[in-house]
Structures are given as C-alpha cells and as structure tokens.
Design brief:
With 175 residues, the chain is mainly beta. The protein has helices at 26-31, 77-90, 96-99; strands spanning 18-22, 32-36, 40-47, 54-63, 66-71, 115-122, 128-142, 158-164, 170-173. The model is unreliable at 105-109 (pLDDT under 50).
C-alpha cells in the first residue's frame, strides 16, 4: 500500500541555518548567535450555556517579543548600538538624548525610533530560503555583561536583547 500524504520536501529546518539583518544595529547582525522567532497566541472567550461552557475563538493575535543573543566585540560596538538606542528612546538624563535618535552612533542610514529586522532562513545547502521581516522593531531590554576573573577557560561574552515590533511579522519565500 502506497502512502499518499507524504510531503514533497523531507529536509528538516536547521537551527544554525540563519542570518540576521538589523538595519539600525549592523554589528549585532554580524555577531548574532541566537534568535528566537516569537511565539503567538490568540485570545479566546467563554460562551456560557445552561450546560457546559463553550470556548469561542478570539479575534486578537498577541506576539511574544523578539529575542536575540550576540557575542560582544572587544570594542563593545554592538553592545553600544543597542545601549544607545535604548537611551535615545527613554532619554533618562535629558531631552537631548531623544534627539540622538536622528544620529545613531554607528554610521547607518536609519533614523527614528524603530527599525526593520530581517531573519534569513537557509536551506540545508546554505541557500537563502525564507525572509522573515519584523516591521518597526525597537529594543525593550539589554542583558548584562558579566566579567569573572575566576573562570578556567576563556568563553566569549554573550548578551541578550529583546525587541517589540508592530503588527505581524511576514514570512516570504526567497525565489
């Protein structure tokens, strides 16, 4: 008996087959080690009846945040990219810090509070396959840098950053 519902492509998605493109923070793109495509959930309602309550599908989709991990370069350029972006958004000391959004610390053509983020997913033969685009992303957190003089081996410093984005993200096949 033949199996009729076999998929066309039996290759599995690889965890290491990706690249990132953060338009506003290019040094983070180069050193990015990990990125998590956000989960999502749709709300629901309960319709009460005389018998059992019945769940009803919701109408609002909520996304988790976009999380990345990146290696910190010795000049801390990529850490400073995200740090400066956060300071510019929140202007903790003075209002002039907000105007620095017009002049990012690293030479980019991006101005404004948000920036698009692209994740390119590759095939198992390292060819670009899908482009996932997050519109108008902006940072909401930047992890700590831990120095430790007691370690027995030199491990690179990895920092995590989290971003929010507007609307939905798009997934488009690259042809």
């Amino acid at each position: 008996m033949a199996i009729n519902n076999q998929p066309d492509n039996l290759n599995l998605l690889q965890t290491v087959a990706f690249e990132t493109n953060f338009q506003r923070i290019p040094n983070c793109s180069y050193f990015c080690q990990r990125v998590s495509i956000p989960g999502m959930v749709i709300g629901s309602a309960i319709q009460t009846t005389s018998f059992s309550d019945v769940p009803v599908e919701g109408d609002k989709l909520t996304f988790d945040q976009l999380n990345i991990s990146f290696l910190v370069d010795e000049d801390m350029q990529n850490y400073q990219e995200v740090y400066s972006w956060l300071v510019s958004i929140s202007f903790p000391d003075n209002f002039d810090q907000f105007t620095s959004l017009k002049k990012p610390p690293i030479n980019t053509a991006i101005d404004g509070i948000s920036s698009d983020v692209n994740i390119i997913i590759h095939t198992n033969k390292a060819n670009p396959n899908y482009n996932i685009t997050f519109k108008d992303a902006f940072p909401i957190s930047l992890g700590s840098i831990d120095f430790d003089a007691t370690v027995s081996s030199l491990e690179p410093i990895v920092v995590e950053a989290s971003f929010l984005f507007t609307s939905v993200f798009t997934i488009q096949q690259i042809t």
